[in-house]
């Protein structure tokens, strides 16, 4: 039953230790150019992994990485993409801008060399032979195996590649797609829909050095033991994914500030306050910076499967989006989560933070599928998977709201 008593004095004292400035700085560090957007399998991502591991170790937590092979490939680029309109004499008329005017297609074949040709519009009424030496603009991507078949037929007839239309989001960006799919027989670029139509009848020069890469993921796990043996196999997990979609090679930065560096910064700040206040928890705590969320929540799937095989029975809270203030904090409850929801509700009452049920497609769902009580939380995020997801979107007040709500919730569940 939810009670209306005041928050415990010890909790109130701990809440005063939370530092929004420190959370902003950790968010900024995770968005640094050296980490190149934290896409799994990149050197920048490896640097972010090492950074997080050292942060938790510095705070006195027992920290380690959990390495796992990815079950799905990631779209990679060997060199920058290129799309230019040219004259018949190969003089450049226009160089298109990646991410706002064109972008990768996750089914493209690998084409590291520059090729030039005219652009023609595909029509079922044309003979395939008429596409020899051209880039073919499709009205839309055919469904199912039809895309594979069409690309193979056009490649056999000497087509150079394909252009597909893609609509920009409200902020003018073409959203980055990261999960690679089986490549078709031709290189493919997605072009903003209005510009896609304008390419027809012109001459272009194109490079599409895109390929699928299987990498390893690295969850970063930080532990604090509990004081009660009866809870030894029933930890409370607080998670947030730290991977992003990654910067465009030779193009724009995609820092992933609100998705999800800010939430990881909240975890680091909670770990610092818990250590500084020397809070004693009856139940073990496991803080998890999940990897590969952007390619199918693979990191959380691996951890949930491991805990289930070990006979563990955890509670799980997952934070995805801690950077932008909305009218209320979104909560996605899983089955059998009444104790967690009661603690969240009481924390919201203590702190005057409104909560509403919302849809949060993130790592907690892997724990729900494994049969564990798991709840997803989101304070707010903005311009996901685009260059607009930057530090300018991060609000210190949102970070503080996420941290205070979670600390008050943890306090009830593990003390």
UniProtKB/TrEMBL annotation:
Gene Ontology biological-process annotations: proteolysis
Matching InterPro entries: M28_fam (IPR045175), Peptidase_M28 (IPR007484)
GO MF, any single term: metalloexopeptidase activity
Domain Peptidase M28: 219-408
PANTHER family recorded: METALLOPEPTIDASE M28 FAMILY MEMBER, PEPTIDASE M28 DOMAIN-CONTAINING PROTEIN
Name used for this protein in its record: Peptidase M28 domain-containing protein
Species of origin: Tengunoibacter tsumagoiensis
